[in-house]
Amino acid sequence: MDTENWYELKDTDQLVTPCLLVYPDRISKNIERMVEIAGTPSRLRPHIKTHKTAEIIQMQMDKGINQFKCATIAEAELLGNCKAPDVLLAMQPVGFNIVRLFNLIETFPETRFSALVDCMEIREQLEQEARKRHIKLGIYLDLNTGMNRTGIIPGNKALELYRSIWGSENLEAEGLHAYDGHIRNTDFEERRTVCKKAFEPVQKLKEDIEREGMSVKFIIAGGSPSFPVHALNEEVITSPGTTLLWDARYESLFPEMKMLTAAVLCSRVISRPAPNVICLDLGHKALAPEMPFPRVELLDIDNCRQISQSEEHLVLECSDPEQFQIGDVVYAIPMHICPTVAKYRQLITVSKGKVTGSWKVAARDHQLTI
Are 180 and 191 in contact (CB under 8 A)? Predict the structure, then answer.
């Protein structure tokens, strides 16, 4: 797959830049690699937050993947539209999103929806809504294993919360969910050691739950960095997301995963404002700006340093600016693909150097119809 200049288009005359190119053949290889690492599609519950795209969901379903994770009600609605059999809303619903979740369940009866809970307050609100609608909602207990972003710390309070879910008439205890996105050791053995250490409280909580006669049907753990570690534990359902498209940051950190870059930014040189400075049309509105520089890996460009970015512009300092002419096309791999995708209404599909069509980033907004 990794042939020289695989990303280049043969004709860019009609191409509007900046745009995001995707390569379906490489996405397909990444899905196959995910299944290879997990051992079977049944141990995969991929997150769709990276791509938010129906066509990529369908590609995964075509390869036997039937469980998905999502972060927003809009993404959950997209999965319902795609007739995905099993969908986990992997962000605890609060406020009106609780109503929207149950509206989803009623709108898409063929899809089984579940949700995360990490506190008694939301558990009670979900139970109240489920009782009112005569619905039984699957619930995963969201655990904080060190990232300190969401979740309840494994221990007595977590056990009490799980016990209350188990005893509910309108909530069904599905199991445990633990996201460890803070674990990003580049050395695989170090990552494995840290990941296993962080997982120990999850395992203990599972044993405490079972000791009381309750069951833990599933444990969903990890994201993309810890995916190959959790894949070694047959009790765990894995949930990578970035692996579908990959990006320059993860490629530099985790080359052993052998994923292929499947999304490339296409930009143009729009100005040469100073002797050693060029400017590309890759501003904040086209490229995720939260990373430190460099924010992209520039392809086939030498001796250039990314020095500033504003709404519409990415400025480079180059020791050899003569390599560029105004209007030249420049290809770049984002350091962080997930928020970059969300900046585009559509992904431009490419095969063998030619544009073949486009895919709508269907769940880009926070609300579709529900």
Answer: no
Q: Which has the closest alpha carbon to 143: 128, 160, 155, 130?
A: 155
Q: 227-243 pLDDT, tens per residue?
A: 999 999 999 999 999 99
User: Structure tokens of 318?
Assistant: 């180059």
Residue 4 lies in a domain: no
CATH number at residue 154: 3.20.20.10
The arithmetic mean of pLDDT across residues 333-337, rounded, is 98
- What whole-number distance in Å separates Cα of residue 216 and Cα of residue 158? 13
Do 157 and 297 reside in the same domain of the chain? Answer: no
Is the Cα dihedral 264, 265, 266, 270 positive or negative? negative
Count the domains in the chain.
2
Cα dihedral 312→316→322→323 (10° resolution): -90
Domain of 100 in residue numbering reads as 25-243
Global pTM reads 0.96
Three-point CA angle 307, 312, 318, nearest 5°: 30
